Amino acid sequence: MAPRISPTxxxxxxxxxxxxxxxxxxxxxxxxxxxxxxxAGPFPLAxxxxxxxxxxxxxxxxxxxxxxxxxxxxxLALAAGAMxxxxxxxxxxxxxxxxxxxxxxSVSGLALLCLALVAGAIWGRRSRLLFKAGSLALSGLYPxxxxxxxxxxxDKRSVERSFxxxxxxxxxxxxxxxxxxxxxxxxxxxxxxHECGVRITMDPSQxxxxxxxxxxxxxxxxxxxGTPLAVATGGTLARRFVAMHRPRLVVAVACERDLxxxxxxxxxxxxxxxxQRPHGPCFDTGVDLAALALALDxxxxxxxxxxxxxxxxS
Length: 314
Prior knowledge:
Blueprint: H1 34-40, H2 55-87, H3 99-123, H4 128-151, H5 156-174, E1 178-179, E2 183-188, H6 215-225, E3 229-232, H7 235-245, E4 249-254, H8 256-265, E5 270-274, H9 289-299, E6 300-301, H10 307-313
Parallel strand pairs: 1-6, 2-3, 2-4, 4-5
Helix pairs in contact: 2-3, 2-4, 2-5, 3-4, 3-5, 4-5, 5-8, 6-9
């Protein structure tokens, strides 16, 4: 008699594929140590989880396109002067006088100063004043970079990505390492599985750690490094968490648009790591845990056991 073969049971309609195994988190290294610097390379963190193209090439692209946007203003002023010579007469000066020429020269001079400040904040000496000036200059250069990049055919997302990368390099060079408890890990709520009924925005420790979303690994990373973790649903709640924790530095995970706006609005150093969007924006997103671990190891100074309790008691 032939053996009976039981039919393969069909998968239920609500079947959720098991998530891919998380990337191995690198071992903890002392922040700023020579061993960590040699292992990470010349620009260890400047790309976050978007390491192509190289950080150096992307910074050169940002500064180059900003310089191209800077050149547009005198070019437009020169074109206006040529039109005056052509249609008014040969006795008129080629360079426009008055408001248009003064405006073009003023904008060009200001943009050139911004370029110098950003370059100084990236490659110059460490200075809190220079970092503040470089951050303001980077925000001021963004319209020029955006204009030149769009004329060159680049999309808005790549422009925001370049802005984040240059900011990250500036933060790496200028920001000082801090105690792990003074570095805030700020996450978007879209990392949580969309069918999860647990509300973790106000208390991430309520997470059941089922493994269906990256929150399991993120909570473990926060506990291992000793950094506070916050999950925000938007910019207002993110600012509230920053005011509540009063960190010296923020490591934020988000999309290009939210990171760009958050970096521009923040008065403290913000290192950005892009999220992963396999299902589209704001829906079951992911994050590179290895890149996040490198960022925390770069900026966090591990505290001695019991130091936090002694500080609170005092």
